[in-house]
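Good morning,

Attaching, inline, the backbone tokens for the sequence recovery test we're adding to the shared suite. The designed sequence is right after.
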């Protein structure tokens, strides 16, 4: 099967990437209403959000390895199928358990992004690889940013199940597009799938992320939180020893331990942390009432529309990132992106007095995210064997998700620790908002320092012309 055109291949894969990341923010407008809609307690209803994060974290490295072994296009189509099934399961019911199951299946779709990145190197002409990879990597942030106002509009003007029927329909369109347009990758890795390794990684990751996400609710010093953290650490340590000994490991830790790969993944964690800060803090600024002294009193839909240009800027900056990578190398590009993110956060200490000011800060930070996210796959694929590119990108995408989960936990603790009473409710104080923004700025600067130590002569995944 031959692609109709490189542009169609890129469009099909990037559309799928945006849809997959859209699943992460799909239910955010519904969060306050989920207990009523699902006849559940707030703690139980929160699993509708948490399960998607947990499944996505586990599936990104797993689907990457499956794609390297059995074909990336085949696994991408399977990811779309799970997204469609999960959407229908939620849309057809109104109970908690089906909603959790369906949202878990939707989370598996996040594997589409690292698979699509690797697929592009395998099937596109060399001159299109750099810009295509940059755009595909940016979809990790674009879909979520654009999805928030879209979800709010649908939720306000239709039944909540309409969101899931919409995601099922979009999933079917994307599945058909990939099936018709995108050829299978000719690149295969030798060996067999490490089932035991996948189970061990899943238990370890879920335990750690569960502690991060639920620690504030359970109590950071509670036996349950300490227990899941301890379980995660012990399981991952054992898993790591086993991975070093098996012939066909799920994750080649010797390759992942190479300095360029290791440092890029560390930088990805803090970049994910910094990226998510805007999603957590800026809506608070925009929606808090004026009685707080800083709030702008917008509705959720209005706040989502203010945040949406950030997602568009990530997409706009992806070709800029590709051009900079072609001229100066991916390390310099990643450093530039992280520096822009840090500058944007530092500017927010002065740009919080109006909607326009927050919009400007969002655009600056999102531009930095678009530049840095688009550079990461080039660093990874320049340092891993070709036949491990999907697994390498899957692990890198996982690191970004670890960063966003950690950002959610840390920012939540900070905002909960600095509160004021206004308009009959409790809100984060302006001091808490500033501390949260400065922490994100610090994370960006930490990532910049880490990136400095990435070895400069990294092999580019494909030659990318400047013109």
């Amino acid at each position: 099967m031959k692609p109709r055109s490189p542009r169609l291949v890129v469009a099909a894969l990037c559309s799928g990437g945006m849809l997959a990341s859209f699943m992460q923010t799909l239910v955010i407008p519904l969060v306050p209403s989920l207990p009523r809609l699902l006849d559940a307690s707030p703690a139980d209803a929160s699993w509708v959000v948490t399960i998607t994060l947990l499944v996505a974290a586990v599936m990104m490295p797993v689907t990457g390895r499956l794609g390297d072994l059995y074909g990336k296009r085949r696994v991408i189509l399977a990811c779309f199928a799970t997204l469609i099934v999960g959407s229908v399961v939620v849309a057809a019911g109104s109970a908690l358990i089906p909603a959790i199951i369906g949202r878990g299946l939707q989370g598996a779709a996040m594997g589409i992004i690292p698979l699509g990145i690797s697929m592009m190197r395998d099937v596109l002409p060399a001159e299109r690889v750099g810009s295509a990879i940059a755009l595909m990597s940016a979809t990790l942030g674009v879909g979520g940013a654009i999805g928030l106002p879209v979800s709010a509009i649908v939720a306000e003007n239709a039944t909540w199940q309409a969101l899931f029927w919409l995601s099922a329909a979009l999933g079917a369109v994307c599945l058909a597009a990939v099936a018709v347009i995108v050829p299978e990758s000719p690149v295969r890795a030798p060996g067999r799938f490490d089932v035991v390794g996948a189970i061990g990684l899943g238990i370890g990751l879920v335990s750690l992320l569960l502690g991060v996400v639920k620690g504030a609710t359970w109590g950071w010093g509670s036996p349950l939180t300490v227990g899941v953290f301890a379980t995660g650490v012990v399981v991952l340590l054992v898993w790591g020893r086993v991975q070093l000994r098996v012939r066909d490991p799920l994750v080649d830790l010797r390759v992942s331990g190479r300095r360029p790969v290791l440092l890029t993944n560390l930088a990805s964690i803090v970049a994910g942390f910094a990226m998510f800060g805007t999603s957590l803090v800026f809506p608070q600024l925009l929606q808090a009432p004026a009685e707080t002294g800083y709030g702008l009193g917008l509705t959720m839909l209005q706040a989502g529309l203010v945040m949406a240009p950030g997602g568009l800027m990530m997409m706009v900056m992806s070709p800029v990132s590709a051009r900079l990578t072609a001229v100066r190398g991916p390390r310099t590009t990643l450093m530039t992106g992280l520096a822009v993110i840090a500058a944007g956060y530092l500017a927010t200490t002065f740009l919080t007095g109006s909607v326009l000011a927050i919009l400007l800060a969002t655009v600056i930070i999102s531009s930095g995210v678009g530049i840095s996210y688009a550079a990461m796959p080039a660093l990874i694929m320049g340092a891993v064997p070709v036949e491990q590119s999907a697994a390498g990108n899957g692990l890198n995408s996982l690191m970004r998700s670890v960063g966003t989960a950690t950002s959610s936990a840390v920012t939540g603790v900070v905002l909960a620790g600095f509160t004021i009473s206004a308009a009959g409710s409790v809100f984060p104080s302006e001091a808490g908002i500033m501390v949260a923004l400065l922490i994100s700025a610090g994370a960006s600067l930490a990532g910049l320092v880490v990136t400095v130590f990435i070895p400069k002569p990294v092999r580019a995944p494909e030659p990318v012309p400047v013109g």
